[in-house]
Amino acid sequence: MTWNIRTGGRDRTGPDRRDLVCRVVAAQAPDVLAVQELRGFDRPGVLAGFADRVGMRAHLARSCFGQPVAVLVRPSWSTRSAGPVRRPFHHAAQRVELGTTAGPLTVLSAHLDPYTGLRRRIEAGWLVGAVRRAPGELALLAGDLNTLDPGTDHTDRVARLPAAYRRRHLRRDGRTVDTRAVARLLAAGLVDLWTHAAGPPAPTDAPAPTDAPAPTDAPAPTDTAGWGGAAASGEAGLTAPTRYGGGGEFSGMRLDYLFGGPALAARLRAVRVVRGGDAEYASDHYPVVAELDLDPAPMGEP
């Protein structure tokens, strides 16, 4: 599971959302949690208190310019090594290597630069390097990449943004949507697990389905994302903003990603965006959860 919890779950002038954050995490019960925007979590006791509440072990990467990130792990999973990705990210990136029955799994939690696409492209290159240095074939990159994907037409969404925020997603010509960071990850052979779960697009000449369509006035489900498959497309994949958690700099965007190497993508069972309930208030981003066919290595195994 990856989640940007917005300023450490506590606003300077707004409500304290940390109880909501903990309830969302507890409800999903992930084995591994990549979490971003941990403002104040580098203060004594804050990270440990959060980790204790959600029943996980935490590994934090501090930030020189922005906010820390972390990877949290269930005690049943053995941690072989952990440490920050030592590059000057605007925020940070944390690496944790876990033992699985299929070999070592390297997990990266990252938060890319919010302001410029060029900077995000550079930071994406640093993440590619970290993945390539990982032992074994299993690698998972998770986080808020602040970047739109290159496979979608984002013109209308970007046009709806206020000018100050629109610039963050445009190239220097002021017209072209900047998708270079995600494109760099894809060019390096990483697999976008959301689009991988959706499968290839249907051919344009495919026959119409035989089932009758739902009435146009049918109520929308509470959780519009669902688990993988055909649900993993279109509006279901958008991760920011939430309904009540703020996020005026977003216009309905997919900015939070789970990427894996081919070996990890082959073990993907399902992926979804968590919506509804506390997730609508806890942050301006929705969590993204993937279910993988992986089991922890027995404790004590090298």
Automatic annotation (TrEMBL):
Listed name of the protein: Exonuclease III
Statement: the UniProt record of this protein carries the keyword Transit peptide: no
Domain of life: Bacteria
InterPro entries per the UniProt record, alphabetical: Endo/exonu/phosph_ase_sf, Endo/exonuclease/phosphatase
Biased composition (Pro residues): 200-218
Nuclease among keywords: yes
MF terms (GO), sorted A to Z: exonuclease activity
UniProt keyword terms in alphabetical order: Exonuclease, Hydrolase, Nuclease
Domain Endonuclease/exonuclease/phosphatase: 1-285
Disordered as annotated region, ranges: 198-234
SUPFAM superfamilies with a match to the protein in the record: DNase I-like
